[in-house]
Design a protein that fits this description.
Chain lengths: 117, 115
């Protein structure tokens, strides 16, 4: 079965702390994509990053970084020096080959991040 | 360029009433999707479309119907609303297949309450 688990329901940090959001996925396929989306209090989902299953390079974008480890089926997201504007719900998602599974994303339940000033 | 828009933003229905949610995108995307978001459950796919005139079932299609008569519009219908359909509904679009890593663009959401 295809599944995405975000075990952390809610995380609270103080501004400037580093925080890591965990994402563990399950699939037997060798070809897949992983995504992170951000949902700020305004409600709209915003794309953050995509990673394909053949690219295990970590990625850094400003204060954001992502660690993809196939050995542990994890795609974790770290925010360095968190800011109040980072407060949001963060979703990890998995997509699979369309021919076998249809055109779908499997979302995790989301992690609520609260950054306090 | 408005991106993905949804109408209405809020709606309250009584059990048994019907309604249609409208999603429009101006990016000429082939793929469109309807999701529902419930607390602690992430987003779940209701129906999707891979092109004008096509529709397909997602994870939770029961109680909903969809139509894609025009490429830019994707309608979600509730024929007989039930309290279990109280949720936030998101529409999304993508140029290509999610299986090939294409990014989805989301609308602002519609908050539906069924009494």
């Amino acid at each position: 079965a295809q599944k995405v688990t975000q075990a952390q329901t809610e995380i609270s940090v103080v501004e400037k702390e580093d925080v890591t959001l965990d994402c563990v996925y399950e699939t037997r396929d060798t070809t897949y994509y992983l995504f992170w989306y951000k949902q700020p209090p305004s409600g709209e989902l915003v794309f953050l990053i995509r990673r394909n299953s053949f690219d295990e390079q970590n990625e850094i974008s400003g204060r954001y970084s992502w660690n993809f480890q196939k050995s542990t089926s994890s795609f974790n997201f770290t925010i360095t020096a968190s800011q109040v504007v980072d407060s949001a719900v963060y979703f990890c998602a998995l997509s699979l080959p369309e021919m076998e599974y249809g055109n779908k994303l499997v979302f995790g339940a989301g992690t609520i991040l609260r950054v306090k000033s | 360029n408005a991106g993905v828009t949804q109408t209405p933003k809020f709606r309250v229905l009584k059990t048994g009433q019907s309604m249609t949610l409208l999603c429009a995108q101006d990016m000429n995307h082939e793929y469109m999707y309807w999701y529902r978001q419930d607390p602690g459950m992430g987003l779940r796919l209701i129906h999707y479309s891979v092109g004008e005139g096509t529709t397909a079932k997602g994870e939770v299609p029961d109680g909903y119907n969809v139509s894609r008569l025009k490429k830019q519009n994707f309608l979600l219908g509730l024929e007989s609303a039930a309290p279990s359909q109280t949720s936030v509904y998101f529409c999304a679009s993508a140029q290509g297949s999610l299986g090939k890593g294409d990014e989805q663009f989301f609308g602002p959401g519609t908050r539906l309450t069924v009494l």
